[in-house]
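User: Is it possible to get a 3D structure for a protein together with its bound compound? The compound here is flavin mononucleotide. I've pasted both below.
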Amino acid sequence: MARGDAAWAPLRIGAVVVDPPTVLAPLAGVTVPPFRRLCRELGAGMVCSEMVSANALAYQNPKTALMLHVCDDEHPVSVQILAPTPEVAEPAAEAAVEAGADVVDINMGCPVPKVIRCGAGVALMRDLPRARAVMEAAVRGVAGRAPVTVKIRAGWDPRSRCFAEIARQAEDAGLSGIVLHARYGCQGYSGHADWSMIADLRQQTSLPVVGNGDVRGASDAARMLRETGCDGVMVGRGAMGYPWVFRELRAAARSEAVPEPAGPGERIGALLRLGREMVDFYGEYRGLRELRGFVCWFTRGMPSSAALRAEALQLTSFEDLRGLLLRYGESWAVRDAEE
Ligand SMILES: Cc1cc2nc3c(=O)[nH]c(=O)nc-3n(C[C@H](O)[C@H](O)[C@H](O)COP(=O)(O)O)c2cc1C
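Assistant: Yes, that's possible. Here is the predicted structure of the complex:
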């Protein structure tokens, strides 16, 4: 890959090379296999699964087991586990590797009350001995077959800021990377991410650091890499409705001109394909439900799209949805790639 700027050098997590150094964030309800494949094709260097509950895996919940699924053509992929204790972290990490994960990530950033109540997510950052035990257990679980990373916040709140301490523990426990979402847990998603904390972490650890928070396009990503010295950038909400962000980031990494934004025809074409893959993966009923969010996000701002969404969300058969999307996309010459 031609490269003019050292800031865009490939990210290395253990033996896994992430090139370009851009990662699709773990997003519950969003980063399911068909969407991850689309992001990889559009240029993401690595993709992450949604968080997978280690407790639910321990109860052999079949819906949770399906969340571990990794497709052959989406590597490298990181599978994220949500584990409150070392007892469930170890078998969950093992199961993730057996399912084909290239990287196993530990969630220490989720601030959702239900998750905190069970002692997982960002709750671990308020109990450092347990956080360490969970990291050590995940390393035992993978048994050298994949690197382990941890995705953290800066701490629960400014008074309990502890990202540097967690990074030291991560090094001692044998982890291979750390992702910092540069907000405090108590902030949820409000306010701006404070990238100076990513720069601070970069100074304080020898592990590769992936910066996360408020990257929406190539200029944000370039600025984060330059200002913080981080080794990779992770994009979440910016990719939900616009996975083409990864095409822009890939062009920036190659010092190429930023490509034209994806137009309506390309967006509708991608929805058709995503719909077909969702239905293949989950079956028609669940597949169409999983697609709903994407229908809304991908069509936002397009002409007469409110009526399209209202109609699309009523449909219960993929053939009907396909017909609707093809009729809507006619003026942009949208074709179904499967025809
Ligand atoms: C809908 C949604 C679901 C999320 N699910 C997860 C998750 O499963 N695991 C996780 O570590 N973070 C999760 N996050 C947080 C994102 O991974 C990311 O850290 C956050 O959105 C900040 O990055 P952004 O500004 O690029 O969106 C979620 C965020 C959103 C908006």
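The pocket of flavin mononucleotide is lined by residues 25-28, 30, 50-51, 80, 107, 109-110, 151, 181, 212-215, 235-238 (CB under 6 Å). Strands lie at 11-13, 16-18, 22-24, 46-53, 77-82, 103-108, 148-152, 177-181, 209-212, 232-235.
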